[in-house]
Amino acid sequence: MAMVRGLLRAVAVLGLVALAASFAGRWWAWGDSLAVARSWVGLGGLAWLGLCGVFGAFTWRWVGALWLAVLLALAPVGWDKWRPEPGGAAALVLYQKNMNFRMPGVAPLVEDIRAVAPDFVTLQEVDAENRAIMGALAEGWPGQHYCPFSAVGGQAVLARWPALDTACGYGWAGMKVDHPEGAVWLVSLHLHWPAPHGQFGHLARALPELAALEGPVFLGGDFNMVPWSGAMARVEDALGARHVGRARLSIEQFGGKLWLPIDHVLAPEGWRGRTVIRGQLGSDHFGVVGELVAP
């Protein structure tokens, strides 16, 4: 029995260390990889700590204290999933979509964007073939800009108003839009996957570029990362923006067995918003529409 108690304690300690490390993504690449799994580690940890109490590995007083600590660690996840969303009319609507370079045709997505009638569109994995979507939407969204990036395609931004300026950076495309109430930047961002892949280094290169943009920034992107991560906080701080709306499960992996909220919409500080999921339409990502309410 002593061996069982020791094993229960050791696994509990390792789980608590992993949970704590999931908050280190600002400074440590693997921290954000752990942040992706924070829900599963935390919920599994609650059950494991219950076993520790049953078998006497910890006193119930310790179990109660550790349960509280785990629940506090899970609070940011719960907030992003169930945060209140504002009512009222949207001042701006942004349609965010990773098209997927394997998209067989752009017609369904063109139809859906026209049905939503957003003010801004942000696209990723725009390759030589599916780039045809820009021409198909040129009449309603004349402000357009494209930046090449990787083998799976680049980023594009589209707006109802003309462009005043454009910029390309490492994994992002930006366009300064001549909005009737004042010029704003529209950015499409596509980050690499987290550790063991290159997301941490990607941000180190892209964030100074994004921070140099002058004026309000609206951003849609495939972050390949959950909203309660260090990566999200770093992007928000660089832009003076915040992600809006609830975290929506925006990609399915492994035949639908794994769903993750990795596509997000950001708006300048003070803005709020609602997020609405649209269909996959030939992509492995769902569309995410941000209905943005002005301060």
Q: What secondary-structure arrangement, pairings included, does this model have?
A:
Layout: H1 2-21, H2 29-36, H3 38-55, H4 60-82, E1 92-98, H5 107-116, E2 120-126, H6 132-136, E3 143-150, E4 153-159, E5 163-169, E6 172-177, E7 184-190, H7 199-211, E8 217-222, H8 230-239, E9 241-243, E10 251-253, E11 258-260, E12 263-268, E13 272-278, E14 287-293
Parallel strand pairs: 1-2, 7-8
Antiparallel strand pairs: 1-14, 2-4, 3-4, 5-6, 6-7, 8-12, 9-12, 10-11, 13-14
Level-1 CATH class name of the largest domain: Alpha Beta
Helix content: 25-40%
Alpha-beta classification: alpha+beta
* CATH topology label of the largest domain: Deoxyribonuclease I, Chain A
Order of secondary-structure elements: HHHHEHEHEEEEEHEHEEEEEE
In total, the number of domains comes to 2
At CATH's second level, what is the architecture of the largest domain?
Answer: 4-Layer Sandwich
Q: Radius of gyration from the CA trace?
A: 21 Å
Number of strands: 14
What proportion strand?
A: 25-35%
CATH superfamily of the largest domain: Endonuclease/exonuclease/phosphatase
Spatial shape: elongated
Low-confidence stretches: none
